[in-house]
Specification:
Number of helices: 6
Number of strands: 2
Helix content: 40-55%
Largest sheet: 2 strands, antiparallel
Mean pLDDT: 92
CATH class of the largest domain: Mainly Alpha
CATH topology of the largest domain: 434 Repressor (Amino-terminal Domain)
Oligomer: single chain
Order of helices and strands: HHHHHHEE
CATH superfamily of the largest domain: lambda repressor-like DNA-binding domains
Strand order of the largest sheet: 1-2
Shape: globular
Low-confidence stretches: none
Structural class: alpha+beta
């Protein structure tokens, strides 16, 4: 069985049972709903206790449970640019705002990146008379670039220049 086959099996069970993502996340527990949902969708690795909880919930075999605990090939089935309209809007946000976000982050923190691994993501629904809004919050650890072979007064890590 390939991981994509397990994902389809899990989605079929979700549909057959009429489960919401909220219900699934509550039953598996252990991480944020984004990471649990990503685990079910094959984009994130579940911890062993989470994989065991998912296996119990979905009635999986030991092999399938083990697959949930394996490091996935993230993003393998997502075309670039994305074709799904909602995912494409995130891609569009990055294309349009990415250079400004990069400039502002570098001005504040220095030469480096925002981690997508040491990362938190929140999402909430905001009622609005003109149509409800999606509020997203992202928080990633700043990782300064390492300047390999730096000597003398050259900084060993990215830093904010004064």
């Amino acid at each position: 069985m390939k991981r994509a086959d397990l994902t389809e099996k899990l989605l079929d069970i979700k549909r057959e049972k009429g489960w919401s993502w909220k219900y699934i996340c509550e039953q598996i527990g252990g991480m944020s709903p984004v990471l649990i949902t990503g685990g079910v969708l094959g984009q994130m690795k579940m911890t062993k206790p989470m994989a065991a909880a998912a296996a119990k919930l979905f009635g999986l075999s030991k092999t399938e449970e083990t697959m949930l605990n394996e490091v996935p090939m993230r993003g393998a089935d997502i075309p670039m640019p994305p074709t799904d309209p909602l995912i494409y809007r995130f891609y569009e946000l990055i294309m349009i705002n990415g250079p400004a976000w990069k400039a502002l982050i570098e001005e504040e923190f220095g030469d480096g990146i925002m981690s997508a691994i040491d990362f938190d993501f929140t999402m909430e629904r905001l009622p609005d008379p003109k149509g409800d809004r999606v509020k997203i919050g992202m928080s990633g650890k700043f990782l300064p670039y390492k300047y390999y072979g730096a000597t003398g007064n050259a900084q060993a890590l990215g830093y904010k220049e004064e």
